[in-house]
Amino acid sequence: MTTLSTKTPVIDPTPWTQKALARAKSAREGTWALERRRAAIGTLGTLSLPKRDDELWRRTDFGTLEMWLATLDPFSQPPMARNVDDLPAPVIERLAGEGTRAALLVQRDAGVVLEQTHPTLQSQGVTVCSLDRATREHEALLGPHYGSLLHDDYDWYAALGSSLRQGGAFVHVPKGVKAELPVRLFHWLDGAGRLVAPRSVVVVEAGAEVTMIEEYLSETVEGASLHAGGVEVFVGDGAKVTYAQIQDWGRNVFHYGNTRARLGRDAELQWMQVMVGGRMTKANGYFNLDGTGARAFVNGFMFGDQRQHFHLHTLQRHLQPHTTSDLLIKCCLKDRARSVYQGLIQVAEKAQRTDAYQANRNLLLSDQARADSIPGLEILANDVRCTHGATLGFLDPDHLYYLMARGLPRLEAQRLIVEAFFEPVIERIPLETVRERLRGEIERKID
């Protein structure tokens, strides 16, 4: 889908794209990948920045970021890390007790600084490496998949990300292999003034299984940074993928992300989307159920405070008969935070016996917070069960009174209610240590 706009970009990205091409050549990027990059640069030249009259940008304005764009550096790359001890302290903290029981890939600013494929996964034939290396070493596996779901002409930021692509991961699980350990991906920003554009591709062949946790982290500093990334996930026939994305940037980061997934026959995807950090987030998650019997379960939560802005757009595309999708997005807002949820269920004409559900639940802790919920259906088949719904409300005073009457302070009572609101989503996130950190983040925001 192309976003058409007549708005003039505030910068000329040509110096960036020329430098990106030169760096890719010097790094011996695969010839086919260089051609894809050139095509993306050509597409970028035909697009302009999104405008507020573009439907998917009507409620989210990156205007503040645009004033910073020309000052951002897309090529900041710290030195390689020899081991986990060379990583930033917050990343080390999140790996405590888990780092030796997972494959690990860490991106710091614009480059991958650490790749560790666990011996157990290596013995199973599982590949975990940077996408940059995969363009040289795994063309046969990566080439047919890269860019087949996330198209450069989606909008200006998607084209920019493909043009400047640096970092990201390539994960491949061979046919019939059930990965015994999870894969953990980290993105870290060292300071302000960064522009990072990672792309990841995950290929899980027929009958295989894998669990992945991807986290976006930084500290809050003065000045803006932009993440413009994308993820493409291919779930083969009868395969199962569990994937959690956790966005916990510092409050100076603008996050733009695209997730695309294609599910084969009888495949299953468990997707978790968490947003608690950043200054402004624009995320798009599209899930193509492209095989009979495919199942997609999409869960997520957003918790905003101060002036945070979260915008999530989802698309559940049922393209074959007997497919199932179940989506639940929960959002809690306080202070002057704002959320936007736009969701669409599409059912193709031949996708009979589709079973699709979409729900968005919003809880406001302040009368100045705002949540917009825009669910939708687009159905061309006549033998389906498709429903959607949205709710919005404030804390129930009776619930608060009940807890406070039993001796709990107001903040503690409020915390228990909010935790109970989010818990059905949190409990589906892989790894107990990750779940506990998210519970701690909820408590911190309330306090």
What does this structure look like?
The chain is 23% helix and 37% strand. The protein is an alpha/beta fold and 447 residues long. The protein folds into 2 domains: 14-291, no CATH class; 395-447, no CATH class. The strands form 2 sheets. The protein has a 10-stranded mixed β-sheet, with helices on one face. Strands 3, 4, 6, 7, 9, 11, 13, 15, 17 and 19 form a 10-stranded mixed β-sheet that branches. The longest helix is centred in the C-terminal third of the chain and has 17 residues, at 410-426. 48% of the residues are buried.
List the keywords.
447 residues; alpha/beta; 11 helices
What oligomeric state do the depicted chains represent? single chain
Q: Which parts are unreliable, with pLDDT below 50 for 5 consecutive residues or more?
A: 1-8
Estimated radius of gyration: 21 Å
The strands making up the biggest β-sheet line up spatially as 2-1-5-8-10-12-14-16-18-20
Beta-strand content estimate? 35-45%
User: So what's the overall shape?
Assistant: globular
Q: What class, by secondary structure content?
A: alpha/beta
Number of domains: 2
* N-to-C CA distance: 42 Å
Helix content: 10-25%
Report mean pLDDT, rounded to a whole number.
Answer: 93
Number of helices: 11
- Beta strands, count: 20
Instruction: Describe the main β-sheet briefly.
Output: 10 strands, mixed
